UniProtKB/TrEMBL annotation:
Gene Ontology BP annotations: cap-dependent translational initiation; formation of cytoplasmic translation initiation complex
Key word Repressor present: no
Record keywords, A-Z: Cytoplasm, Initiation factor, Protein biosynthesis, RNA-binding
Functional note: mRNA cap-binding component of the eukaryotic translation initiation factor 3 (eIF-3) complex, which is involved in protein synthesis of a specialized repertoire of mRNAs and, together with other initiation factors, stimulates binding of mRNA and methionyl-tRNAi to the 40S ribosome. The eIF-3 complex specifically targets and initiates translation of a subset of mRNAs involved in cell proliferation. In the eIF-3 complex, eif3d specifically recognizes and binds the 7-methylguanosine cap of a subset of mRNAs.
InterPro entries to which the protein is assigned, alphabetical: eIF3d (IPR007783)
Annotated family: Belongs to the eIF-3 subunit D family.
Pfam families: eIF-3_zeta
Record-given protein name: Eukaryotic translation initiation factor 3 subunit D
Assembly and oligomerization: Component of the eukaryotic translation initiation factor 3 (eIF-3) complex.
The organism of origin for this protein: Wallemia hederae
Molecular functions per Gene Ontology: mRNA cap binding; translation initiation factor activity
Domain of life: Eukaryota
TM helices/strands, residue ranges: none
Length: 554
C-alpha cells in the first residue's frame, strides 16, 4: 500500500493554513480544548466504549450540535469522569463497637472485631481526613521531654561589651577550629617569685556532712592586677625577657575558650614587637561562674534575684575568697619563696593574704629560628607541711578553690544531688555532676594550677546553711586532685590551649601597633577580633566599662 503525503499549501505572509483553504479534510474530527492551567487526569482512549447510559444520552444530544459548537464533541472522549474511577472504591466503617459490660469479655471481643471483613481497596485519606482536622483544632500542650529538656527556649544573652560601629573586625574563628589547634610546649621555667605561703590546715580534710564547719568571713587583701599595670611585668618587658605577657587568669580563659558559654572579652595590646594579653577591670574575668555548662543554666528573672547568674557569680567569688583564707593556718610558719608582695603598699586597712606570685616563661616558638617566649604570672595559695620534720621531700604547693551549692531543687541547679545527703555516700556522682555543670570553670582552674606548677588542688564543697539565704555557708567536704589528673578527666590538653594562644598572637602580630579586643559571641560558639581606639577602657567613667562590668557578672 502506497503512502502519499497530502499537498500543503503556502500560507504566504502569515502563520497557519492558507486563508483560501476550501478542503474539508479536518471536518468532523473531535477537538479537545486545552489550557496550560488544566490538569491531565486520564489518558485519552479512543477505543473506549462508553457504557454509562447517561453518557450515551449526552452524546446523542450533542451530536447534532457538533458542527455548530467548536470542540463540543470531545467532551465525552477526553473528559475525566470522576464517578467511574470512584466506582471501585468502597467505604467501610471500621470503628470499634461499644464495649459489652457483661456478656462479652475482652478476649472474645477482640476475636469478634478481628473477624470482621474489610474491603480490599479503601479510601483511607477520606476516612482519616475528618479525624486529622479534629486533631489540628485541639490546642497543643508543651511538656518536659526528660532530663535533657530539649524543648526549652533558647537563651538570649547580651555581649560583655558593646561593639561600636567604628570598630574594625579583623578575624572570626569558630570553636570547632579552635579545638583543632595544637602546639607542643615544654615545661615552664621560673623567672621571678614573690610572696609567702601559709601551711594548709589538714583538719579541713576531715570535714564531712556529719561534722560540717561554718565558713568564716575573714577580711584579707588579695591582689589580682591586670597585665598592663603589673609592675613586675613592666620591668620584664623593658628588659625584653619575652615577646608575650599575660596573667594566669587571662590565659586560662583563652586556653579554654572553646568550652565557654557566657560572653567574655579580652584586650590585646601591641607595643612594638611585644604583645600584652589584658583584661578590663570589673569584667567577666573578675568573677566565678556557676553552672555555666549545665543543660538548663540559671536564668535571669526579674522576680527572683537570689539565684540569677549575676547573684550566683558574686556569691561564688565571695565564697572562694573566704574559703582560700580559712583553710590556711595563719599561726603556722610561713614559707618565704621570694621577695615581698609587689602590689602591697602597706596602707590597706585589712591584713594581707599570704600567697605567692610566680612569673614563669614558656617557649611558643614553632622552630629554632624563631623566638617567641611567653611570661605568665601564676599564683599558689598554700603548702602542705610534712608530718615528719626530717623528711627531705619538698613540701607540696597547692591551689585552693571552692565549689558552692545554692539549692539542688531550684531552677538552674543542673540536676545536682543534695550534698548533705549524697556527698559522703555518693561522692563520685556529685563530682561527676560538677564536672558536667561547671566544665569551663574547672578547666580554667586546672590550667591555672598546671601553669603555676602546683602539686595538688584542694576543692571545698561549700553549701548554703539555708537555701534561701546566700550570706551564710558551711563546709561539707573536701576533694583533692592532681592538676594533670583533673585535666585528663576534663579532656583538656595544654597543647591545644597553647595553640589557641599562638593563633591569637599571630593575628595581632600581623597588625600595626595599637589596641585590639577579642570578644566571645554571647549566643554563638564564635570569637571575633576587633581593632579598637587606643583610649578604649582607660577612662573610669567610660560607658563601655560600666556595661562590661554589669554584663560580665552575668
Amino acid at each position: 500500500m502506497d503512502f502519499k503525503l497530502p499537498n500543503l499549501g503556502d500560507s504566504g505572509s502569515h502563520f497557519g493554513p492558507p486563508l483560501n483553504n476550501k478542503s474539508n479534510t479536518f471536518n468532523e474530527i473531535p477537538f479537545s480544548p486545552y489550557s496550560k492551567f488544566d490538569k491531565i487526569t486520564q489518558i485519552a482512549d479512543f477505543n473506549n466504549d462508553i457504557k454509562d447510559e447517561q453518557s450515551k444520552q449526552t452524546s446523542k444530544q450533542l451530536k447534532p450540535l457538533q458542527k455548530s459548537i467548536y470542540g463540543s464533541g470531545s467532551a465525552t472522549a477526553f473528559g475525566y469522569i470522576h464517578g467511574e474511577d470512584e466506582a471501585s472504591f468502597s467505604l467501610v466503617d471500621n470503628r470499634t463497637s461499644a464495649k459489652r459490660t457483661v456478656a462479652l469479655g475482652k478476649r472474645q471481643q477482640s476475636r469478634t472485631q478481628a473477624s470482621r471483613p474489610t474491603a480490599t481497596r479503601t479510601n483511607t485519606a477520606q476516612r482519616q481526613q475528618p479525624q486529622q482536622t479534629q486533631q489540628k483544632q485541639q490546642p497543643r500542650t508543651h511538656r518536659k521531654m526528660g532530663w535533657k529538656d530539649w524543648d526549652k527556649p533558647n537563651r538570649i544573652r547580651d555581649a560583655s561589651v558593646q561593639v561600636e560601629p567604628e570598630w574594625e573586625k579583623l578575624a572570626e574563628i569558630d570553636f570547632p577550629r579552635l579545638n583543632k589547634l595544637n602546639l607542643e610546649v615544654n615545661e615552664g621555667e621560673d623567672v621571678e617569685t614573690y610572696g609567702q605561703l601559709y601551711p594548709y590546715d589538714r583538719a579541713i580534710d576531715r570535714i564531712t556532712t556529719k561534722n560540717e564547719k561554718p565558713l568564716e568571713i575573714k577580711d584579707r587583701t588579695r591582689y589580682n592586677p591586670t597585665t598592663s599595670v603589673d609592675p613586675v611585668i613592666k620591668k620584664l618587658a623593658q628588659e625584653n625577657k619575652a615577646e608575650v605577657f599575660a596573667t594566669d587568669c587571662v590565659l586560662s580563659v583563652l586556653m579554654t575558650s572553646a568550652r565557654s558559654v557566657y560572653p567574655w572579652d579580652l584586650v590585646v595590646v601591641r607595643k612594638g614587637n611585644q604583645i600584652f594579653l589584658d583584661k578590663r577591670e570589673g569584667g567577666p574575668f573578675d568573677f566565678v561562674s556557676v553552672n555555666e555548662n549545665a543543660t538548663d543554666p540559671p536564668m535571669e528573672n526579674d522576680k527572683e534575684t537570689l539565684n540569677t547568674p549575676a547573684s550566683l557569680s558574686f556569691e561564688a567569688t565571695y565564697v572562694n575568697h573566704n574559703y582560700t583564707t580559712q583553710v590556711t593556718n595563719e599561726e603556722g610558719k610561713p614559707q618565704v619563696l621570694g621577695g615581698a608582695n609587689p602590689f602591697y603598699s602597706g596602707d590597706e586597712p585589712d591584713p594581707l593574704a599570704k600567697n605567692v606570685y610566680k612569673y614563669r616563661k614558656f617557649d611558643l616558638s614553632i622552630d629554632e629560628s624563631e623566638k617567641m617566649d611567653l611570661i605568665v604570672r601564676t599564683e599558689l595559695d598554700a603548702y602542705i607541711p610534712n608530718l615528719k620534720k626530717k623528711d627531705p621531700t619538698p613540701t607540696p604547693h597547692i591551689t585552693v578553690r571552692a565549689l558552692n551549692e545554692f539549692d539542688h531543687r531550684a531552677q538552674g541547679s543542673g540536676g545536682a544531688l543534695d550534698w548533705r545527703a549524697k556527698l559522703d555516700t555518693q561522692r563520685g556522682a556529685v563530682v561527676a555532676t560538677e564536672l558536667k555543670n561547671n566544665s569551663v570553670k574547672l578547666a580554667r582552674w586546672a590550667v591555672q594550677s598546671i601553669l603555676a606548677g602546683a602539686d595538688q588542688m584542694k576543692f571545698g564543697f561549700i553549701s548554703r546553711a539555708n537555701p534561701r539565704d546566700e550570706s551564710k555557708h558551711v563546709i561539707v567536704g573536701v576533694q583533692s586532685y592532681k592538676p594533670k589528673d583533673l585535666a585528663s578527666q576534663l579532656h583538656i590538653t595544654l597543647s591545644n590551649g597553647f595553640g589557641v594562644v599562638r593563633t591569637i598572637v599571630d593575628l595581632v602580630k600581623n597588625q600595626p601597633e595599637g589596641k585590639y579586643i577579642l570578644i566571645k559571641d554571647p549566643n554563638r560558639s564564635i570569637v571575633r577580633l576587633y581593632s579598637v581606639p587606643a583610649n578604649f577602657g582607660e577612662a573610669e567613667d567610660d560607658d563601655q566599662v560600666k556595661e562590661g562590668a554589669a554584663a560580665g557578672a552575668n
